[in-house]
Design brief:
Blueprint (H helix, E strand, L loop, with lengths): L2 E6 L4 H10 L5 E8 L10 E4 L6 H9 L3 E4 L6 H4 L2 H21 L5 E7 L26 H19 L4 E7 L1 E3 L6 H6 L4 E4 L5 E2 L1 E3 H14 L3 E5 L5 E2 H8 L3 E4 L4 H9 L8 H9 L6 H7 L7 H19 L1
Parallel strand pairs: 1-2, 1-4, 2-3, 4-5, 5-6, 6-11, 7-10, 8-13
Antiparallel strand pairs: 9-12
Helix pairs in contact: 1-7, 2-4, 4-5
């Protein structure tokens, strides 16, 4: 009998794409997409309406004989969840309950977790390239990044309790593409983009197709371990805004959050303390382990991934323009 896989967070764009990508893959018999609300577009994968914070997820794992869990359900912006408190509840408590269910389900043998490079934080003392073994010198203190740190702590605890389960954690740089809508894409597409005076941070991007493909490979290859994922090369913030044709407003770092929130006009753009530090110092990942352990090199460089995003933005503007 082949693998039965559960993918969480399928009502959001990337989770839905991931679930559908696993359908008809060799060795996978069944793919179940899980979320608390139905997806806007029908899934090719089977959909089960379930909340990972409730006991129903344990029943699902047991009754379906789930072998592989792909956790795509960590929410990056409060507006996606309906507020910061709900967001933290889904991200942290939801992950804790999901891992508890995995611990109780003897059939589970592989766990894949979508995380973020934001767990490293950003600051002036960071190395030029951050590897998976790097100790964060400026750890995040709020929002999605801090939630992701807590999620990874729970995952490490689960690994100690279930050493028989292979666990892969993927720390993605900014995922972009024609369909992605995140705090970072919202920031980059503001009519007037606030930047930190005197700084031009180095950024990295991952095309959404590469994010899906590396996750697919890790599921099929049963890979374990923690890997950074980013397109090769870097893009300066000024270069990204130039590609998008967006004017910028350089401000002292202390003014960026208040001015940014005013300029964003309720959009998803993130102006938390940690994000402002990122917009000041940037972050560059060492991805050599991804190639060595997974055998994967992203098809798109950081610049090419950004270019795909820019083309998507322009198509959107032309459709509504």
């Amino acid at each position: 009998m082949g693998v039965v896989a559960v993918v969480t967070g399928v009502s959001r764009y990337l989770g839905g794409k991931m679930a559908d990508r696993l359908v008809d893959q060799p060795g996978i018999d069944r793919v179940i997409g899980v979320d608390v609300v139905p997806p806007e577009r029908p899934l090719v994968a089977e959909f089960v309406r379930a909340d990972i914070r409730s006991p129903s997820i344990t029943k699902l794992l047991d009754e379906a004989g789930v072998d592989t869990v792909v956790h795509m359900g960590v929410i990056a912006t409060p507006r996606q969840a309906g507020g910061r408190s709900v967001m933290k509840d889904i991200n942290v408590i939801g992950t804790m309950q999901l891992l508890g269910a995995c611990q109780r389900a003897p059939s589970v043998r592989h766990l894949v977790v979508k995380s973020t490079a934001a767990v490293y934080g950003s600051g002036p003392r960071d190395p030029a390239m951050i590897s998976e073994g790097s100790t964060p010198r400026h750890p995040p203190t709020s929002g999605w990044a801090k939630d992701s740190v807590e999620v990874e702590e729970y995952v490490r605890g689960f690994a100690r309790r279930r050493p028989d389960v292979g666990i892969a954690t993927l720390r993605f740089a900014n995922i972009v593409g024609p369909g992605m809508r995140t705090g970072m894409t919202s920031y980059l597409t503001m009519p007037l983009v606030p930047t930190v005076l005197g700084f031009d941070p180095r950024l990295q991007f991952v095309h959404e197709d590469d994010a899906i493909e590396v996750t697919r490979r890790i599921v099929l290859q049963r890979t374990s371990g923690t890997c950074n994922v980013a397109g090769e090369g870097v893009v300066l913030l000024s270069q990204a805004l130039g590609r998008l044709g967006k004017p910028s407003l350089a401000l002292p770092a202390a003014l960026v959050p208040s001015v940014g929130k005013t300029l964003a006009r309720g959009a998803w753009a993130d102006f938390s303390r940690d994000q402002v530090r990122y917009l000041t110092y940037g972050r560059v990942l060492d991805t050599s382990l991804l190639q060595a352990e997974v055998g994967f090199v992203p098809e798109y460089t950081s610049e090419e991934a950004l270019g795909a995003f820019v083309r998507g933005v322009r198509r959107e503007v032309s459709r509504h323009g």
